[in-house]
Amino acid sequence: MKFTILALSAVAIASYTNVQGLPAFIKRAIDGDAPTVIKCFALAVTGTPFTPECTEAAKFNIGIVQSITLKSLNIDFRSSVPTISSNDLSVTLLDIGVPWAIVEASEKATIFNGVVDDAGNGAVGIADFAAGPSPATVNGNIISSKVPSSPLIIAPASADGFVDFVVSLVTKPSYTFTIKGFVGGKFGLPAAPPSTGAFGKGINAIGGAFASAFGPVTVSDVGFQSTITLAGFDGLKDVAFAGMVASTKDANGFSLTWTIKIVNPSQLTVYLGKTTFSTLDATGLPVGDSVIADFTILPGDNQFTVLTTGKDVAVLDGLMANGGSLSFVGTATSNSSPYVNKALAALKFAVTVTKSAA
């Protein structure tokens, strides 16, 4: 593979420089007839940023970025502009046989509502974001980093598509979609693996001297397209009564403060803020509203305090005397964010209050 030869050869001959101070191999790659991608990386190790021509060459000649993986995804809907972040981003680079010396990573990407094939057919783009740079660590050809909180830019024409994307994440056990864009990073020449013996130590010393001489290089706009599958909320089916806190009633109606447990089986964290559910009795008749002041759904077990209010005190009396079931249903006005109400309206979960608890 040409790039493997470039990387290894550059380390191997780094101690031999021309009169301008550049390794002879790098000088020949820059000035000669080497393919564009070879010239780009030869220039990169001298501190020259990637040009748009280099970006295209890197993308289409050797496919430097093989895939993107998000092991977690956080979406915050508490402001008018949603934000996205991830605590666990992995970028798989072309395996050139030696580890990449990545120290930070950044991303500019479009999220698609579904899968896009290699020819660009399929789903349409629904939201854009730009994140980083963030510190990165590397293991061979796998970069591990984070996506810091970044605004999701949703064009008006894409709003319905983004709403459907959220519905899929909330209602399905898993969801597969495409993310496409550009990554960048700060890195040096790929470092040779540790060697032993006199010859090996010499190669290590040469590689270290080369890295010290040229330092980290920043490369941006390296194109990628990756398909991601995330575990979804699956309709939040695991909901249970946790405890009673307080209750009041008067001529105007009743209030009931209690707690519920919700198990989130997904890799998603969703911040919704104040969220109101229409509340139904066991027969399906509306009895009032239930408010969760801070509806932040983390992976795994969650506990929320709920304030249920209604005008018919008989509902509270019946719960206290006999227990019973209350169902939560999302509506078109459940949340201040217009992007989540369709997903909330697709949720309906019942909670059984036992007589002993009441």
Characterise this structure.
- Helix 2 crosses helix 3 and helix 3 packs across helix 4.
- The longest helix has 18 residues.
- The chain folds into 2 domains: 161 residues, Immunoglobulin-like (Sandwich); 116 residues, Immunoglobulin-like.
- The N terminus is likely disordered.
- It contains 8 helices and 18 strands.
- With 358 residues, the protein is α+β, with helices and mostly antiparallel strands.
- The strands form 3 sheets. Strands 1, 2, 3, 6, 7, 12 and 15 form a 7-stranded mixed β-sheet that branches. It has a 7-stranded antiparallel β-sheet with strand order 10-11-16-14-13-17-18.
- Helices cover 24% and strands 43% of the residues.
